[in-house]
Amino acid sequence: MTSEKQSILIIYTGGTIGMREDPKTKTLSPMKFELIQEEIPELHKLGFEIESVTFNPPIDSANMTPAIWIQLAKTIKTYYSQYDGFVILHGTDTMAYTASALSYMLENLDKPVIMTGSQLPIGVLRTDGKENIITAIQIAAAKKDGKAIVPEVCIYFSSHLFRGNRTTKEDSQQFSAFTSHHYPKLAIAGVDIKYNYEKINYPRSKGILSINTSIDDNVIVLKIFPGLNQKYFDAVLALPGLKGIILESYGSGNMPTFPWIFEAIRQSTRSGIVFMNVSQCPGGKVKMGYYETSRELQEAGVVSGKDITVEAAVTKLMFLLGQNLPVAEVKAYLIQNLSGEIEN
Ligand code: ASP
Questions:
Q1: Cα angle value 28/41/5 (rounded, 5°)
Q2: Can you give the residue range of the structural domain that contains 234?
Q3: What residue owns the CA closest to ligand 1's atom 8?
Q4: Do 230 and 193 sit in the same domain of this protein?
């Protein structure tokens, strides 16, 4: 880029923002990026160099896979030096998973990667997509003293900028689809965009972006509920090839103290399966040992997820298992803050 203008690359992966209704089946499916652009003539008024790449085919994010996360990381790496910031258009359903995965995979990130989408397609009169995409571009281009204001993987949605790996989709009906229970918003877009500078992560060692694309998907999430049947619990833990389990526990990390549960967990940890304890209570933090019902988990070798979201936990476990580290090291990294996903 030779021009003085800020340059932004839009990476279009799909999602409701770019969908339209099939007149026959009445179902929504993604359309081409050119058609999205036609719906937002305002993009030209921003005064930035805006270019785009489209994933082929654009998808409903319910079909998201680790292979596409890797494709995203590689795309950002390919174009990194050419643009000041990146905006990823993505479906809301799995946006928090992709944001979390990218936050681990993009190492030495010092440019904004802002994800957004919408609840109503861009061609619909009341769409929320226009404001989301325009403000996401402005945030991706925002600089202070020549440096990016938000050099993080973020989700911008409905006037709020969140750290991506702290975000959860909480609503499929309201325009404000996302929330962050454990970390403050990084910016609020009202008449002005007000940045929460103190809460933004600035890279200590600036370097050349590197991407780490090793992901191991031998991971499952197992939600605990009253009436959980021993037969099924045991069968899941015995799945061949399984390497990591997110236990979605109650409240502050509690599980029933039935001996068969602990026996099964102990046996699995001995065979090298990594267990991570994550609360199914959206605002809950795991405090292992706070109640008797979680103390035994600690003794069985289960690792605390602290205040992590399920989305950030699944992707962190996949990422760490992908590094081919000894189990003890995977566990040690799980309780460390890798890219702002948990409290220190
Ligand atoms: N199913 C859509 C998707 O995640 C929902 C959305 O974009 O809001 O792609």
A1: 120
A2: 219-334
A3: 92
A4: no
